[in-house]
């Protein structure tokens, strides 16, 4: 056994005064500085003073100073501030192991000796409950003594980055590490870490060890105690980290974060147990579409979404150009349980080079939150903490491009398989319609796929294109009626005049409908117009044949209108003869300048009482009840017909889904009316 080599000890505090040394470490300074900038947001004043410390300067001479760094403090900050979840330490170690395998593969391309050592890549995780250790071993390139010092002994110095720089081939290389900080995540869960390693092509092995408190040791390791090639990173877990001695827990973390990396991963859950393959080393989305079966897609979807349904749409594509990424997207076959969660967050799984960076990245707009997607891109700039990539402009651009593609895929499905698409719309139409209100730039695309119920269709099958194709002569608008109950919408008296003229009315019963119809300008030059707002302006549209024969001439209701205006002045804005009623006697509509009745109602529910202004009462001058009332008024005078006038108002309110103004008085008046029949 060879004796331990002199271990270089790093002092807790180091200072670079010599200019040459300074230059050679400039890059490191930059990296550490950016790390400080990042950590600065999270640290206390006390900690910030570490970063701000500067050597005493001679005020007379300008000089160049290197930052001082309290390594112990820096490590402490790093392990406790950079990562928001402890689980990620495994991802970092497994990523390093996969990078090491990839490096060996590259080096072996030009070195025959190494080619002999480059076996099929393999990462093995072993747990020892008695010794309280978790070990990540790989058969990659390993590290020499110098590499141990520069890579693990120097914070924010990435051997992988240096390797890539040397290679000059970043774009298509599959490496993961680049900041040189991931390894230290191990100290979140371990109070002592050992790395036994043998550099490929070398005859010496080394043991690096540290407690993460500012110093490390390197000792020569007998070859028989070292891996044949590669590295073995052993974590002596701290008292808070028992969970990582549990095989199932480790497996689930690895599957989630690292299940797609290029190297297969074995787990030995306890000493003496057989290795079990927990990741195959293949990411489904990296395979060509032609090599993937429908069942494999469905299995993948079920695994990633935790849902059991069959996806209604699967889209898998690779985008090339300025930004390159691969997307695997699923429209679920059933509504996810959190679809109407008030947070309305879209959750995409973002991978960078097959390593999970975020499982719930808000890449897509809220109105696509039902989508289940995986995005893998090597072009998303990583932040040291990995989790903070959300705000990157590249991520934003990718999100937009994906949304465009999803809309195209939905349109294709709508055209090719209308029945299948009808199911998608039934499940997610109300969410997609949020986009009509929130994302004006997407409106035209959304209008292409939107499906509506209408006076011509029981189901949500009508497109705006269908609607416009069926416009009646002189029809200038796309008419709609919004409410929250389809049955009541269909029975709404406001529709009668439109039916009589064969004018189609869209029936909209989702809460979001009241909003988008008011913000959208129209479709193909036709504005959206509520049938419960303002004058019906449909006089110039001819009645359909049936309605013509039934139409009776209107009675003279001038006196009745005047009486109603006076009696109901506290409750209505106006009273007028209606062109929209044929069968019913009365209805309520919003004034010309007012908000649609349903929108006002929704706003009122949310405390904006002022929004719910007084309605207009329309009466049907052809209806026998109105004719009778007009006659009674002339015969008996206004006062005598007062109760009947209130009954009219209350009837209109009830038909609109509201309560009578005064329920007891309404009941009394109606009873009196019934009694008068005898
Ligand atoms: N298992 C390993 N085999 C060989 N080299 C390794 C291994 N683990 C770490 N290294 C070396 O240590 C360096 C530092 O690792 P670390 O995880 O801190 O950073 P990184 O992977 O380069 O970047 P990042 O912070 O983005 O993860 C690596 O770049 C690599 O050179």
Automatic annotation (TrEMBL):
Region annotation (C) ranges: 602-678
Region entry A, spans: 1-386
Keywords: ATP-binding, Chaperone, Cytoplasm, Nucleotide-binding, Stress response
CDD domains: HATPase_Hsp90-like
Ranges for domain Histidine kinase/HSP90-like ATPase: 85-241
Xref: SUPFAM superfamilies: ATPase domain of HSP90 chaperone/DNA topoisomerase II/histidine kinase (SSF55874), HSP90 C-terminal domain (SSF110942), Ribosomal protein S5 domain 2-like (SSF54211)
Gene3D superfamilies to which the protein is assigned, alphabetical: 3.30.230.80, 3.40.50.11260, Heat shock protein 90, C-terminal domain, Histidine kinase-like ATPase, C-terminal domain
Compartment annotation: Cytoplasm
Function: Molecular chaperone. Has ATPase activity.
Family: Belongs to the heat shock protein 90 family.
Protein name as catalogued: Chaperone protein HtpG
Source organism of this protein record: Methylocystis rosea
């Amino acid at each position: 056994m060879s004796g331990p080599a002199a271990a270089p000890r790093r002092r807790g505090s180091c200072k670079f005064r010599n200019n040459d040394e300074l230059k050679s470490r400039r890059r490191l300074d930059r990296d550490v500085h950016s790390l400080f900038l990042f950590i600065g947001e999270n640290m206390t004043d006390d900690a910030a003073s570490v970063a701000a410390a500067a050597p005493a300067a001679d005020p007379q001479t300008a000089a160049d100073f290197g930052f001082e760094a309290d390594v112990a403090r820096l490590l402490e900050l790093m392990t406790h501030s950079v990562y928001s979840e402890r689980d990620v330490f495994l991802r970092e170690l497994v990523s390093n192991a996969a990078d090491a395998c990839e490096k060996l593969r590259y080096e072996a391309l030009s070195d025959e000796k190494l080619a002999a050592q480059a076996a099929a890549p393999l990462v093995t995780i072993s747990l020892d409950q008695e010794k309280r250790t978790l070990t990540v071993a790989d058969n990659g390139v390993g590290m020499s003594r110098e590499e141990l010092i520069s890579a693990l002994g120097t914070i924010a110095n990435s051997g992988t980055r240096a390797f890539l720089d040397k290679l000059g081939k970043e774009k298509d290389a599959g490496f993961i590490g680049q900041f040189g900080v991931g390894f230290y995540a191990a100290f979140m869960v371990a109070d002592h870490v050992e790395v036994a390693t043998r550099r490929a092509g070398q005859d010496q092995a080394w043991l690096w060890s540290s407690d993460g408190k500012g110093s490390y040791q390197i000792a020569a390791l007998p070859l028989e105690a070292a891996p044949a090639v590669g590295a073995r990173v052993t974590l002596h877990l701290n008292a808070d980290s028992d969970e990582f001695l549990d095989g199932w827990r480790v497996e689930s973390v690895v599957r989630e974060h690292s299940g797609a990396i290029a190297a297969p991963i074995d787990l030995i859950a306890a000493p003496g147990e057989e290795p079990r393959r927990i990741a195959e080393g293949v990411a489904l989305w990296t395979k060509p579409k032609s090599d993937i079966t429908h069942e494999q897609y469905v299995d993948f979807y079920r695994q990633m979404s935790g849902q059991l349904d069959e996806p209604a749409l699967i889209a898998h594509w690779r985008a090339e150009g300025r930004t390159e990424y691969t997307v695997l997207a699923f429209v679920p076959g059933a509504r996810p349980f959190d679809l109407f969660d008030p947070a309305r967050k879209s959750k995409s799984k973002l991978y960078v080079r097959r390593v999970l960076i975020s499982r719930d990245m808000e890449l897509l707009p809220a109105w696509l939150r039902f989508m289940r997607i995986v995005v893998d891109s090597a072009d998303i700039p990583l932040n040291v903490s990995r989790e903070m990539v959300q705000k990157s402009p590249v991520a934003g651009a990718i999100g937009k491009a994906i949304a465009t593609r999803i809309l195209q895929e939905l349109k294709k499905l709508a055209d090719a398989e209308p029945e299948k698409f009808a199911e998608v719309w039934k499940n997610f139409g109300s969410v997609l319609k949020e986009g009509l209100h929130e994302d004006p730039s997407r409106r035209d695309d959304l209008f292409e796929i939107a499906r509506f119920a209408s006076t011509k269709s029981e189901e949500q099958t009508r497109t705006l294109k269908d609607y416009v194709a069926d416009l009646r002569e002189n029809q200038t608008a796309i008419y709609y009626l919004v409410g929250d109950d389809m049955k009541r919408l269909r029975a709404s008296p406001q529709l009668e005049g439109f039916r009589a003229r064969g004018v189609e009315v869209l029936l909209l019963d989702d809460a979001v409908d009241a909003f988008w119809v008011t913000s959208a300008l129209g479709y193909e030059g036709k504005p959206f117009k509520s049938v419960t707002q303002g004058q019906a302006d449909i006089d110039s549209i001819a009645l359909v044949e049936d309605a013509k024969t039934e139409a009776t001439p209107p009675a003279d209701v001038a006196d009745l209108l005047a009486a109603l205006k006076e009696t109901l002045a506290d409750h209505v804005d106006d009273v007028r003869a209606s062109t929209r009623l044929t069968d019913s006697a009365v209805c309520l509509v919003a004034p010309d300048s007012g908000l649609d009745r349903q929108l006002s109602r929704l706003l009122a529910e949310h405390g904006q009482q002022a929004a719910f202004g007084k309605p207009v009462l329309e009466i049907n001058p052809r209806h026998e009840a109105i004719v009778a009332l007009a006659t009674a008024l002339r015969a008996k005078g206004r006062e005598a017909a007062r109760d009947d006038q209130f009954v009219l108002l209350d009837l209109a309110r009830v038909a609109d889904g509201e309560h009578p103004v005064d329920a007891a008085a309404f009941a009394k008046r109606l009873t009196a009316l019934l009694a008068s029949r005898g």
